[in-house]
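Moderator note: this is an archived Q&A kept for reference. The question asked for a predicted structure of one protein chain; the sequence and the answer are reproduced below.
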Amino acid sequence: AAATITPEVIDVRASVDEAWVCVAWTTPWPADAEWPAVHAVASRLQSHGFRGRRFETRWAPLDQPGLLAMARRLGGEDDPAAAARDLVALAAAAAEALDAADLRTARTGCRAFLDAGRGRDAAVAANPYLAAFSLARTPSFGVDLDALHDAFGRLTAAEARRAAAAVLAPGRVAAVVVRSRTAPPPKPR
């Protein structure tokens, strides 16, 4: 049976009428054993989406490594709870589909972000901000970068699938619908 997910609804005033559903999970930090698996799922979702669905994935390993979020715009006939369940199911399907190629991509991406301060990647030349931010931010994670790279190297797809499924379980998700409505014109004075 499908998990019961009831998004909280937040109404805001904005310049356009639209609604979005967003689901988010608190995830491990880079020093935690499960982080490489979650990073692999997030990388998969960010790099090519999944199953032709339209959605956005928010995963920022340096800015906010403890949060994975997915969102999509709602149409007028969409059921927000069903849309939230669909996003959770897509994350689960991405976790189930992890393979060795996804782990290699995630490991490379991890090096590009967390290890940029050591200057091993050509991307540092194009983005020196990344190197400075990496050097300043990575120590706060309490992670040994060499150990993290080794953990990626030892991680099997089966282990990654199990860890990601546990972290991204439907019972651990927060869901919200943000509906924006145009503000009424100001009243004449």
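Archived answer notes: The mean pLDDT is 82.
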